[in-house]
Amino acid sequence: MQSEPKASLVGEEYEVEVGPVAHGGHCIARTAEGQVLFVRHTLPGERVVARVTEGEEGARFLRADAVRILDPAKDRVEAPCPFSGPGRCGGCDWQHVAPGAQRRLKAEVITEQLQRLAGLTPEAARWDGTVEPAPGDKVARGEVPAWRTRLQYAVDEAGRPGLRRHRSHEVEPVDHCLIAAPGVTELGIEKREWPQIESVEAIAATGSSDRQVVLTPRPGARLPIVELDRPVSVLRIAESRGRERHRLVHRVHGRPFVRERAADRTWRVGEGGFWQVHPKAADLLVEAVMQGLMPRKGDTALDLYCGVGLFAGALGERVGERGAVLGIESSKRAAEDARHNLQDLDRVRIEHGKVEQVLPRTGITEADLIVLDPPRSGAGKETVAHLASLGARRIAYVACDPAALARDLAYFHDAGYTPRRLRAFDLFPVTHHVECVAVLEPAGKGH
Ligand SMILES: C[S@@+](CC[C@H](N)C(=O)[O-])C[C@H]1O[C@@H](n2cnc3c(N)ncnc32)[C@H](O)[C@@H]1O
To answer: Hey, whose CA ends up nearest to atom 18 of ligand 1?
Structure first.
């Protein structure tokens, strides 16, 4: 028997009292009937009219936007960005939150995730409960730091550049993204039209004048001739082909990479290679990881999910001639960049492949130190168990998703590792995202 389709509730409005912030940046509320609402553009303690954007009768939860604020929280500010708000640009979901309050809310989310998924209080996680701002990002109420050095613009049918709306393919035309770093804004991408183009990726390197622009034309479009306001080191045109949209680089001017500066080294980062988006992030994370691991001469160390070799480089410089560092990275291009970046460090080796496949193949049975910086999904139970079996003195876990971190901390706990220190950094201001560094040691070591 086919069940009746459930009635959509999209467009329905509910007056609600808003509860706590949740993972994902929305706040939790309930309708008078008890249905759970995930409400964006609001703050805990507010009374708002929430309009449903997704969901149907009887669904486990509905998604909604706060469209009228009846009783504003003291931490609410007028959104500095004119393109943000319900149904608008999906990039910055916390434009309406005062800067200090953003960090407090992020701390609440981390606390909740640690408690629920790992059974850890902040004290047990050795965390002071704060989210640290990146140097230079402390802005006044109602201001937004211009931090984003890598930005993917979408282009609408009329050729206007913009950013995608929340959970949508629609484009919000944007003529000045407030979080774009000055180097990105100076490229003038927002000030011109992009006929035939589907997306424009702009990168402004930190510590070098390198700029990269990758254009993806619409399927079947003739490749355009493009001149930008400012000469770029790299202008690449990627071709989207058929449904799979292979990013086939068609034409290249200049170098096929940008050079970033961090941790007193220069890093070659090729197209598609991972690099932190906030200009202060790489330095800050290297410092936090090295402070946590305290490498010694002669140590053997692993840098897992190593990208272009950031932590492997810092470790390689510290373990000296008698030590050794192995980095593992699944992107071929990034692994090649890592080898290039660290060619002066004889004791650093980079393997290309997935950690879960390469690590068992290496035959490594012990390591003094481990740093892992997995993608959003985390490392997972098997990899964590494998890492714990190597008997490292300390493990540093760099995480961009507190939920994945908490899940993996629970696996580490089961495998005999306990937090020694946790730090959280606000590397994505005006959004709900947050970066954490957890340092672990074998249980029973104590301080
Ligand atoms: C968050 S980035 C970290 C990169 C580097 N640690 C840094 O800070 O620049 C995660 C990296 O893991 C790589 N990656 C994703 N899944 C992987 C896997 N299963 N095994 C190895 N590397 C993986 C990605 O290509 C990416 O470079």
So the answer is: 354
Q: Are residues 129 and 154 in the same domain?
A: no
Check pLDDT > 60 for residue 150: yes
Question: Is 108 marked within a binding site?
Answer: no
The encoded tokens of residue 5 equal 């389709």
Q: Is 305 annotated as a binding residue?
A: yes
Distance from C-alpha of 321 to C-alpha of 105, rounded to nearest angstrom = 45
CATH number of the domain at 216, please: 2.40.50.1070
**What pLDDT is recorded for position 224?**
61
The total number of structural domains in the chain stands at 3
CA 440 / ligand 1 centre spacing (Å): 20
Q: In the prediction, which pLDDT does 243 show?
A: 43
Which whole-number Å values give the CA distances from 384 to 126, 144, 404, 442, in the listed order? 20, 38, 12, 13
Question: Residue range 209-236: average pLDDT?
Answer: 71
ipTM, 2 decimals?
Answer: 0.99
How does DSSP assign 193-238, residue by residue? --TTEEEEEEEE-SSS--EEEEEEEPTTPPPPP---SS--SEEEEE
Between the CA of 331 and the centroid of ligand 1 the distance, in Å, is 8
The answer to whether the CB of 371 is under 6 A from ligand 1 is no
